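S1.2 Input.
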Amino acid sequence: MRYFIVDAFTSEPFGGNPAGVVLLEPGKSFPSDELMRLVAAELRYSETAFVRPDAPREFTIRYFTPCGEVDLCGHATIAAFGVLRAEGVVAEGDTCLNRTRAGDLRVNAGRQVMMTMAPPVVLATAVDAECLCRVMGVTDAMRHPSLPVEIVSTGLPDIMLPVPNVDALHALCPDMDALARLSRELGVTGVHAFALTDDKYTAHTRNFAPLYGIPEEAATGTASGALTYYLARQGLIAAPAACCFLQGEAMRRPSLIVTRLHTDGTIEVGGECCLLACGTLLPGANDAQPSSRP
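S1.3 Output.
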């Protein structure tokens, strides 16, 4: 199996959000779940995409964190189609089908890889804000005066947490153990915090998902899609609209995520990516089992 290291949501190496991409042979079965998890853990990125070509411009992708499988990952999808384009499997500008556990999604493999998200849905509007604020380290001065906390999904559910300004966003200091417990209780991936701005970005954002072994993520495509829908629900944008989110500042990995809200309600999320390295998983590793030693 060939693997790649790709920085997603950036055009510069060592920026954006790094992901692993493993390119499988066309039509072959996926490796065992445990082997894919071990590969993801060895690469040590928040997500690794395992890509199987099924037919021309049709693919099945499975996504693994070091802890296990997740239904979808935005930045790993951007990375995966950046690899497919660079390897000549697809041509620049091709529209492709991506089969995922979150559904079949359309992806355009342009210079900016753009993926159509799952239909947006609000899963909860009555979130215990007091509990969430304690977990996230939000003081009274850091609470947004008017925007609500909601759970929104465009493939993965996240808590949308508004704060009044960028200073409040950077001051967030979550209790990661408590956030993991809360995420499990609410059935969410994590918290997507944001501050609206009057600069060139629609919002500055931070994402925390310790339940899946990700204390903080430099770019989160699925949550950016959910935030786009949230902003439309709150009357802050109207279709057709384009948004630009800056994430990863606190990690010194600035990531630029673009989204598009169409008049039919569909949402696209995407950005550029930069291939950093590649290699080959040696044959013996394909049959490897986790060590039984303590």
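S1.4 Remarks. DSSP finds seven helices and 18 strands in the chain.
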